[in-house]
Design brief:
It contains twelve helices and eight strands. The protein is of the alpha/beta class. Strands 3-2-1-4-5-6-7-8 form an eight-stranded mixed sheet, sandwiched between helices. Strand 5, helix 5 (106-109) and strand 6 (118-123) form a beta-alpha-beta unit. The protein is globular, with a radius of gyration of 21 Å. The structure holds NADP nicotinamide-adenine-dinucleotide phosphate. NADP nicotinamide-adenine-dinucleotide phosphate (NAP) is lined by residues 13-19, 40, 42-43, 63, 76-79, 81, 85, 100-102, 123-126.
Length: 265
């Protein structure tokens, strides 16, 4: 549903991969007609593409101009650049500052962006461009929730440490694609054309993802059983992976990553 009451003035400082994806999502999403985006300099190619494509995206001459033109400032530079980028900027008390940077939760960023009092961390993923995927928000800030409504599935968290846990879980993305690529490769090696192989595997995984949305959170083991006949093909593959510890490796890696990230906060 469109929010017709408010015009959102959004600034993006750091228009790289995710800054550009967020801008595209906002300006093609359900609130697009009510959003103006001020884009920081640097990353000139992406900024030029966005301001050419969207009338409401404006390339600014400085990061301070971005802040001055915005009510919601999205900080989307790499974690190691957040300090040098934010320290010289003059924020306003009523501004909302949104950190996209890993390792920069609201409590860490807040002292850098005073007098702005409303600070949060948002973790979108690249599929936000397609208005899809989870968008972690911590803490809940009402205007940010309204701004990103329809750009993906907002997951609002109470605890800062939970953001780290879910960020680690997102490290499964390339494994997901590697698994699909390996299956497509095997199918084509058996003589099926690449287009049919890709289409089949993609639709299989899309269908499974849809099924997942309908499964209660306390029945994930049940759904594994529901998708394998005792002694059947699915059971064979899953048990072989289980026996070699493949699923445990995933859990161990996520655990390791989370401990490392917590040590650096
Ligand atoms: N990629 C993801 O999927 C993802 C998801 C969630 C969160 N994040 C977080 O988002 C942040 C950005 O990640 P990314 O993958 O988008 O990195 P990226 O592609 O390297 O983008 C960072 C951008 O910041 C720009 N930049 C650097 N210094 C700047 C300055 N002083 N003023 C203005 N812009 C400056 C860079 O410009 P130049 O190209 O000119 O150097 C670059 O375009 C990271 O903190 C990351 O933790 C990323």
């Amino acid at each position: 549903m469109k929010d017709t009451h408010v015009r959102f003035r959004v600034g993006v400082v750091g228009v790289g991969v995710i800054g550009a994806a967020v801008t595209e999502s906002l300006l093609t999403g359900p609130q697009a007609d009510a959003i103006d985006v001020a884009l920081s300099p640097r990353s000139t190619e992406l900024t030029a593409q966005l301001s050419e494509r969207f009338e409401t995206a404006h390339a600014c001459a400085s990061n301070q101009e971005v802040v001055d033109r915005s009510d919601v400032v999205i900080v989307a530079v790499r974690p190691e650049h957040v300090l040098e980028v934010c320290r010289p900027l003059a924020f306003r008390e009523e501004q909302v500052v949104v950190s996209l940077a890993a390792g920069w939760p609201a409590s860490t960023l807040a002292p850098l962006v005073t007098p702005a009092v409303s600070v949060c961390q948002l973790i979108p993923l690249p599929m936000i461009r397609l208005h899809s995927g989870p968008i972690v928000l911590q803490p809940r800030v009402e205007v940010v929730e309204r701004l990103f409504r329809g750009c993906g599935r907002l997951v609002a968290l109470e605890e800062e440490s939970d953001v780290i846990t879910l960020s680690c879980a997102s490290a499964s993305m390339s494994t997901f694609f590697a698994l699909q690529a390996r299956i497509v490769e095997w199918v084509t090696s058996q003589g099926v054309g690449i287009d049919s192989a890709k289409e089949y595997v993609q639709e299989l995984f899309v269908g499974l993802a849809h099924e997942m949305t309908a499964i209660p959170a306390d029945d994930l083991a049940g759904v594994v059983r529901a998708h394998e006949t005792p002694g059947g093909l699915n059971e064979q593959v899953r048990e072989a992976l289980d026996a070699m510890g493949a699923f445990d490796v995933v859990a161990r890696q996520l655990d390791l990553m989370r401990r490392e990230r917590l040590q650096h906060t």
